[in-house]
Structure formats: structure tokens, C-alpha cells
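FIELD: query
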Amino acid sequence: MHTKINQTMEKDNENILFKSRSSRACIRDGYRFYFSHFKRIFKATWLIAILFAVLSAAASAMPILLSPNLTLAGLLLATLAVLLLLILAWRRLRKRQLLEATERIPFKNWLRHTGMLLIIGIVCLVTVSVFIMLTSLPMIIMMAANWLDQIGVLSGDPSGMPDYVKWLTLAVFLIAGFLQAYVWQSVIGPLYMMRGSIIQHENERQKFNKTEIKETYETNLIYRP
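FIELD: result
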């Protein structure tokens, strides 16, 4: 029974995935896929989201709570956290059969669809940026409070921040990081649909080329003097 359910899920995923889509359709169907499966995605990736929250909180805390000189290190850690999140989440979702395992796409095929890749990438980054800003509002408030306090201390004034504020700041960073983990994971949907669309486009192109070659060969045989 369990095997039959898995086979049905794989067939449904395959039917959804391998379609020739435009960039707009990849984005629309990708986000629809992500939100319609969000409950299962959450169950599969919540531990990964916690790991991302810890790394992103550490990246935000380094220049705020430790030293402004660690800003570059914090940015590098934040970038690494995003890459790690997407890689681990993608693998986890494939293991849970939410994402269909597909063939590798040659580099030349990616180049052939550069326009689609750029359009989908830009739209996803803009969408992520908007929601990251919304979920970062409490973080920005805490950052501003800590920066103002540090400026006052450097000017010779005593710190006006209670001791628990640092822990409150870390808690805010962790909560925001956990929410942002699922904002970042939303790009998986459009990228997943784009991957299936590229594979389908290439398969149709190869079939068309084979048909053209066959028809040309048959025509030459008929009209050969």
C-alpha cells in the first residue's frame, strides 16, 4: 500500500514537472506548488530551518553585539547559510519525494535557456527581498537600539541597555531567521519548475531534430536520381 502511494506521488510530480512552460508559468506554478505543499515542506525541513536560524542569527550578531569590524565576516556567514539552506532543503525534499529526481542538465543547455534563468532568478530575488525586509523589521529595531547604545558608550556615556537586551536581541534574530528560512525556500518552487521545463524543452527539441533528419533522409531517397 505504501509503495503504491509513493508510485502515485512520483507519477503526479512527474506530470506536474515535465511541461513546456514560459518563465511566467514557471514562476506562477512554482509558487503555487510551494504553498500548496507548504505543510509537508515545513515538516520535512524544520530542523534545517533551525540550523539556518542559528547561522543567520550569528551572522547578524557578529557586527552588532561583538564588533563592527566583523561586518564582512557576518555577510559571508549569512551567504553561506543561505546556500547551505537551499542545498539541504532541496536534498531533503527529494528524499521525501516532494521533488522528483531528474537527469542532470548539461551546461550548454543551461546557456541555451539563459533568458529564462535570468528572468526567474530576478523575480525570485525581488520577491525574497520584499519578504526579508518585512520579517527583518524587529531585527532592524534591535540593531538600531544596539548601535545607538554602542555609539553612546564610545562617546563616553554609560550604557543604557539592560543586560537582558542582548539575549532579547539574539531571540529576535533567531525568530526572524527561522521565518526567513521559509522565505528563501520559496525559490525552490520556481527553480524546480524551471528545471522540468528546460528538460522538456530539450527533449522536444531533440525529437524535432530527429524527425527533421528522418524526413530529410527519406526525401533524399525518394528524389535520388
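FIELD: remark
Residues 1-5 have pLDDT under 50 and may be disordered.
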